[in-house]
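Appendix C reproduces, verbatim, an entry submitted by the partner laboratory led by Prof. M.T., so that reviewers can inspect both the input and the predicted structure.
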Amino acid sequence: MRAIRGDESPLSYLQAAVCYHELHQYSYNKNPQWGPQRILDDRYIEQVTQMGLWPFITIIRSLDPIFFYDSLHHPVVIFYTYKSFGEESLQKHIHRFDFEGYGMKMNERSIAVNNKLPFLWNRLGFNE
């Protein structure tokens, strides 16, 4: 990721994070499956919920992408994705970029799977 160049805007960091995910999925899996995955935002969730297609419980906090600088002035991007291949799940992705450039450290975790983990939902700010 150090070869990536950009204007250091919040959008460029989000794009670098998405690029990282695509390259990581392709390079580490010998048989990559390019299943549907979407970065979530509140507007999308509202539209899908109105159509009756949202498979999870009601969300009471924002899942919009977040950009900020941490206490050491490193850019940080947090976003959530919805995966529907295999089992439906919500993933949280945290990317902390180097002080200069687009080198990064990344962490991701599943925050919900098929609406069957109510203790996680309550802890993360979701309502039934």
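Residues 10-123 form one domain. Additional entries are available on request from the coordinating office.
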